[in-house]
Amino acid sequence: MPDVTDKLVDLPRYSSMDCPLHGLVTILSGPWTTYILWLLKNRGPMRFGQLKKQMPSISAKVLTERLRMLEGLGIIDRHHEPTIPPKVTYSLTERGHELDAALDALDALALKWSGRTGWS
């Protein structure tokens, strides 16, 4: 499989405003996307069931769609081990880790605005 992290992303495709920033924000603001990224960044590689357990109100269909979209953009990696049952683990790619500083800044701002000192 080719390394998608070396490919450019057509960010204006995700925005009607022909704006790369708006395209990126549109991708990240999709349902559950920032939480998936936050979990993988802060808790490391996770299996589908572990992710689903952290988001009880998400459907398996939506979680699968979000994971496939992020994988297609080269933001997360899907590692499949052909065992019985199959073991699939998701983790951030190098491109996904490029979001670390932005996620950290948003996380700090969210904590500040909410008056919290940390997440449980």
Provide the domain count: 1
Question: What structural category do the secondary elements indicate?
Answer: mainly alpha
| CATH structural class | Mainly Alpha
Q: Fraction of residues in helices? A: 40-55%
Largest sheet geometry: 3 strands, antiparallel
Record the strand order, biggest sheet: 1-3-2
Whole-number mean pLDDT: 91
CATH homologous superfamily annotation: Winged helix-like DNA-binding domain superfamily/Winged helix DNA-binding domain
SS strand fraction: 5-15%
How would you sum up this structure, described in words?
- Strands 1-3-2 form a three-stranded antiparallel beta sheet.
- It has a single domain (10-114), classed as Arc Repressor Mutant, subunit A.
- Helices cover 49% and strands 12% of the residues.
- The protein has six helices and three strands; from the N terminus they run ααβααββαα.
- Strand 2 and strand 3 (87-92) form a beta hairpin.
- The longest helix has 15 residues, at 100-114.
- It has helices at 20-28, 33-43, 48-54, 60-72, 94-97, 100-114, and strands spanning 46-47, 76-81, 87-92.
- It has 120 residues and is mainly alpha-helical.
